[in-house]
Structures are given as structure tokens and as C-alpha cells.
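In the previous chapter we treated chains in isolation. Here, by contrast, the input contains two separate entities that must be folded as one system, with a combined length of 399 residues.
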Amino acid sequence: MSSEATAGAHAGDHGDGHGDGHGHHGPKWLAHHFDTPAQQFDAAKLGMWVFLAQELLFFSGLFVAYGVYRSWYPEMFKAASHQLDKIMGGTNTIVLLFSSFTAAMAVRSSQLGKQKETGRYLLVTILCAFGFLVIKYFEYQHKFEAGLLPSRYFHPHMDHLVAGSAPLPANTGTFFGIYFMMTGVHGVHVIVGIGVLIWIYLRNQRGDFSKEFFTPVDIAALYWHLVDLVWIYLFPLLYLV
Amino acid sequence: MAHEATHAPKEDGAVHAHISSAGFYMMIFAALIGLTILTVGQSYVDLGRANLIVVILIATTKASLVVSFFMHLRYDNKFNALIFISCIFFIGIFFAYTMNDTERRGELDADQNVKILQKTGEEAPGGFVPNTPASGHADEHGAAPAPSGAAPAGGDHH
């Protein structure tokens, strides 16, 4: 898998003996503070995994809040969860899993140097991300109409609630506070992900990537998989109590 | 498991990332969809307290598929795996310490002026004794209107 592009990369002096520090002795995408493409790739991956760890810890606060309140008010969580639409949530789960799959395929195509294919997979991923947000919009709209809002804004309208559902205790607003916070922060990540994927798509169409250099596609996909990862837990915890 | 591991020497400085086959990714995707259907199906079966455990197990299985194969962690630098595992470990500590507190507070029994652990009926350790036990609502969840799980006292919302 070696290539002419990288062959010159390690021919340079490793001691950084040249004064200006701008001696590019490799392909143009190789930053001059890295000796080899492999080193640059590993550094990028390491940085991304540290960031993803931070993201998980950031979400964990919401998950701990969920755990505490679910343990305090199990019946309330059960009743409130029945107000959520399993079909919509399940559809969204499948949409997001599919987009995760296409993101992985985009990385694979990029690794193989298939630029057109990468672009197509990235487009599908972006479309699925938009689809996710559209479904989310309809879900939120129903919650607003039914008055199923966080904490003190909670004022359920009986005619909008799911037929035959258990009566909602007065503190059900707590559940919807957690619901909107979790899905909202996750939704923000989806929006950021769309932005990142569009950027990567444009760079791919510009021909920035090759068999030797696909790091940005890989890193963006890692972020997108994390969005998927969080939803994998959110869906059963919120919708399937 | 379909590997196409590259055994090229790493000394040439080029990137040697693992490339999984398209069929393998499809298999993982099919497994993820299967597990999603399983978890939705399970939600119609009431297993009581085991519900949450089953849900977490299924979700964790899905998550490990995504992390191992879609995110390439299985074939990646082991140090990245270490970062991920330690992150999960610290989330575990976060959960354990927080729940260790919140699970042991108990509900106020105003007649006896003690806090009772709902799940066991024992007196709760620690906590505080409210100044006015007759106020009835001075429990440990701030201004929570109802004791755990019960219908709210002030049910004027319906």
C-alpha cells in the first residue's frame, strides 16, 4: 500500500535540522511538523478519540440525571414514556443506524480512493441526518401541542394525549425536562454533524482525498458514529420504559 | 469475522488502516437493525426490574458493534481503545457515587420524624431532619409534590 507520494516523506531529515521549519518534503497534505503520513494519521485519530471521550463524559451528566430520577419516580417515568411515539422513535433509530452505516461505507470508499462513491455515501448520510431532524420536528410539535413541556411549563391537554394512557403524575414535567434536554443536546450534535459532513463532502468533490490521505473523512465519520452511539442509548431509555 | 488485515511493514511511513469489506459492514448493519427490533419487541414484555437491565444489555451490544467495527476501534491503535475504556470507567464512577447518594436518602415519615428507605423499609442513614415536620412537603427532593411513585397529593392538574 506504499506509494510514491509517501516515499519522499521519510527521506527528509528527522532531526528538523532545516532552519525555516517549512521544508515540505512530502505530499502537500502532510503538515511539516509530522515526519510521516502514518504519524499524522495516528495523531489525528488520537486527538479525535480524546474529544469523543469528552463528548461521552459530557452526555453522561444527562444520563446520570436520568438514572437518579428514574429510580426516584419509576411509575412516573413509565406513564410519561407512553406519551412518546415508539414508531417515530424507532424510525429515527433505523434512519440514524443507516446513516452510520453509510458513513462507514464512505470511509471505506475513501480508503480505496473511490472519490465518486465516497461522495454518494456522504450525501446519503447527510440526507438521513436531515430526515432524522424532520421526524424530530414532528415529534417536538406534538409535545408542544399536548403541553408536555419541561418542569413548570408542563400542562397536559387531555385531548392531545395518547388514548388510554395512564394518568400523568404532577411531576411528569421532570421527565420531559430530561427528554427535551437529552434529545435537544443530541439534536444539536446532529446539526453540527450535518455541517461537518457537508464540509467533508465539498472537500471530497474538490478532490482533496486519496488512498493515501483520507483522515478528514475518517474523523468526521467518527463524530457521526458518536451521534449514533448516544442515540442507541437514548431511544430505549426514553421511548421504551 | 471477515478481516482483510494488511500485513505490510509499517516502516514506510504510509497509513495502513484496516479496510473492512462492504459485506461485513452490511452484516453489522443488519445486526444493529435486528437488535433494534429486539429491543422494541422486548418493550411490550414486562419483566419488572429486569426490564432496564435487558434494555442496557441490548443497547451496549449495539454500541460495541458500532465502536468496534464502524469506528474501527478493534483494528485501531490500542491507546485509543484505552482512552475509550477509561472514559466508560469514569462514567461508571460518576454513576456509582451519585446513585450511592440518591438511593440512600429515603422518604420522610412525618409521624416518626425519620427517613425511611422505600425499598427496604429501614431507616435511611444521614439526611437531615426538617425543622417543621408538619409541613409534610419538606422532603429531600426539594419541592417535589409527591412521594416517590405515588399519585400526587395536589392532583388539581386534571
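Residues 1-5, 142-158 of chain B have pLDDT under 50 and may be disordered. The CA atoms of residues 41 and 70 of chain B lie 25 Å apart. Compare these points with the single-chain example from earlier in the chapter.
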